[in-house]
Amino acid sequence: MLTMDDHSVIGGPENGVHTGARPARRVRLWPLLAAGLALTACQPPVPQVQIGKRVEVIAHEGGRGLNLGDSLAAFQSALDLGVDVLDLDIVPGKAQGADELVGYQRPAPLVWGDLTASASKCNGKYVGQPLKDLTFAQVFTMVCDKASPSFPDQKAVSGNKIALLQQVFNLVNRRSKFTFDIQIHTVPNDPSSSTPEQATEAVLLESKRDHREGQIRVKSFDWRNLDLIRQQNPKVTLIAMYDERTFFSGSPWLGSVDYAAVGGDPVKAAQRIGASILSPCYTTAGCAGPTPPGPGSPLLEKALVDRAHAAGLKVIPWTVNDEKAMSDLVDLGVDGIVTDYPDRLRKVLKAKGIDVPDPYKPPVAKTLEKNPPGL
């Protein structure tokens, strides 16, 4: 597979040096070649961007178009289908002592995409209260099994409870080459939101405790979280999410990034925050609605993809559910696609002759015995 760091793009004896009966001409070319190599050595390293690799199939909330979003059933279904990445949301619960349902002290990392458990999704005493103020024992009393009318094919999961990050981790062996994209949900200036310090602590503590640091990537619209993750564990891959609601001059979402200093350029902004992956809304029409834009929405510009690649960043747009848009984005050169319908993306990739991930196969019992039991 050709990569941007392939020596053939730099130059060598096979590029510009003739073989045959005229060695004198060959000798005269070496000074030019040496000068060219010297100039190359003074330039920044060539970005390590792979060309022609497989496009990542990323199951948003486990594939909420097919199953109840952020449920253990959805994540298991995605694994059975075959995806590269499980994309899940995290909000931290209340920092607590020895909770009878958890067993050790920590802020509970809850797999949930909202700051509260709303009545449209859940039933119980604590519906509508900020999750940051609830222990996991309190959260566990709620039943969140209502299917979303926005996704008519979504299967309800009777009796579903909000899960812990540990429970999702337990679905995949820690030694496997698998990726969890963890989206940290915090909202600047919202009293219902936890602080970035609380949220990043919840994610990093659980990832370290369960030896998953090599399997996670952290993403967020609130780039204060990315700043903190970079400071506390620079080995964790960061994904810079943004759209028209967060990326603007004076935005409180951009963390340490000065919008004016980067000229309003999301590529430069992602580099400044230390991200390896740029994750824009997939359409220039914007993603401000409650559900992803419909078919026919104008796609992000290829120039953005090319500039990001030239800067050494991957590009993974969200949340793409239309097959035509998926196909066109693949043609633009994106590195992965976040979707509520991983089955559709697999279909599109297969039609283009692109390999898709196999269903996840649990390891043999001998390996499992070395892992701590799940909840």
Automatic annotation (TrEMBL):
<protein>
    <recommendedName>
        <fullName>GP-PDE domain-containing protein</fullName>
    </recommendedName>
</protein>
<dbReference type="GO" id="GO:0006629">
    <property type="term" value="P:lipid metabolic process"/>
</dbReference>
<feature type="region of interest" description="Disordered">
    <location>
        <begin position="1"/>
        <end position="20"/>
    </location>
</feature>
<dbReference type="GO" id="GO:0008081">
    <property type="term" value="F:phosphoric diester hydrolase activity"/>
</dbReference>
<dbReference type="InterPro" id="IPR030395">
    <property type="entry name" value="GP_PDE_dom"/>
</dbReference>
<feature type="domain" description="GP-PDE">
    <location>
        <begin position="55"/>
        <end position="349"/>
    </location>
</feature>
<dbReference type="Pfam" id="PF03009">
    <property type="entry name" value="GDPD"/>
</dbReference>
<dbReference type="InterPro" id="IPR017946">
    <property type="entry name" value="PLC-like_Pdiesterase_TIM-brl"/>
</dbReference>
